[in-house]
Amino acid sequence: MEGVKLVEKVVIVPEMPTNRRRIFLSNLDLPLVAYQESVSFYDPPENKISFSESYNTLYRALRSLLVPYDFFAGRLVPALEDNSRLEIDCNGAGIVVAAARTDSRLSQLGGLFAPKPDLKHLVAFLREEGEDEMEFKDKPLLYIQLTQFGCGSLALASRYNHCVLDGAAARDFEKNLAAFTRGDDLVIVPNPDRTIFKARNPPRISHPHHEYSRPSEIRDNLFSVGGKRCTNVMHSRTSHNTTHLIHIPPQRIASLKMAALKDGNLKKCTTFHAIAAKVWKARSIATKIHDEVCSTMLFPVDVRRIVVPPVPIGFAGNALVPGFARASVRELKDKEDSYIVRKVQEGVERFDDEYVRSGIDWLEVHRGRPCNENSFSLVAWFRLGLEEDVFSWGKLKYATPVVLKPGLVFLLPGLEGDGGLNICLDLPDDQVDEFHRLLME
Prior knowledge:
Layout: E1 4-12, E2 21-24, E3 35-42, H1 51-65, E4 75-78, E5 86-90, E6 95-102, E7 142-148, E8 154-161, H2 167-181, E9 212-213, E10 223-225, E11 228-230, E12 242-248, H3 250-261, H4 271-286, E13 294-302, E14 320-328, H5 329-334, H6 337-349, H7 353-366, E15 369-370, E16 375-380, E17 390-391, E18 394-401, E19 408-413, E20 421-427, H8 429-440
Helix pairs in contact: 1-2, 3-4, 4-6, 4-8
GO molecular function, one term: acyltransferase activity, transferring groups other than amino-acyl groups
InterPro entries: Plant_Fungal_Acyltransferase
Family: Belongs to the plant acyltransferase family.
């Protein structure tokens, strides 16, 4: 992919003054003070609008959207009541948006359904010089880059602080943004009030929480707030592995589900249950974890409808809580498929209102983060439904994360109409070969 050249870079603020307020960040938000990057691709606009029209339409849409999403235009600051925590100051400081061009054609990128190094060009103008040394109060919470390819296709990349939104809320934001570029009204009214996820006073931890690690078990995980050091922020590590993509055809998915149901011990088995169980087993063995070691697979569980009362429609925050499946590597090697799938199912079924509240209280007491000992996280990207979004310049073609962070495995959609899935993971070549063999056996 040839060099991407900047057309212009601007700060977008709400089109009208918004009320100055502070937004509480819950214990589900605070472990996620880190930036996420993703990119969506679009064919050349059928209505033949110019690139200038496209990015100016984007600017106008964002100015309007930042009125209901005033918190995205704010900044992270120490909380007024407890300066060891962070909260959002809705100060209208704005977001950063870049327009860029490249002579490369979209087809030169090859497959668009998985992270790859070339995608970093599409977020090239979304980082500040000396950013690592900047204080949170000086960093925008959202950066966007719209890039036009030589063939006329477009890429819309976003870089946002994960503490503001989870994947479901980010999907709502993108739907609203698409609507505003078309000149339509809000599809979903955002509600950023996270007080429903406040810890109880005093905290009551009623369950063991193997999905989390204590601060003493977390390395390189410190940040400074108001002169104090805290241990509840995720930092990505540098990976020297290679991102690999493994396609699972629909026939293989069907056979995995049949194998799990064969002995009659399970009443049902979804695609996610079957794939998750197989990925967990294959990765645990391929990474050569000792047989007696306990392997933990994490996967996000949306608790919007689980907590009591349910989270309001349009909730704009983090309500995806790590579920887990946990077993020794020996069990994963020796037990039948139905046993491993059942472990995955239990990871979802253990969630009720009290379990969620207990986990929030655990985080209040221990200030930890998702388990990082002999563990990995499986994210079902194919469930987001982003392919339904239609912007003024056209319908979304593909969407993918820009990079795969260590310890993550993505389940991505397969080719259009294929019905299969792609597994994206970051392991050394020899381990991936073993993973692939185990996945297909």
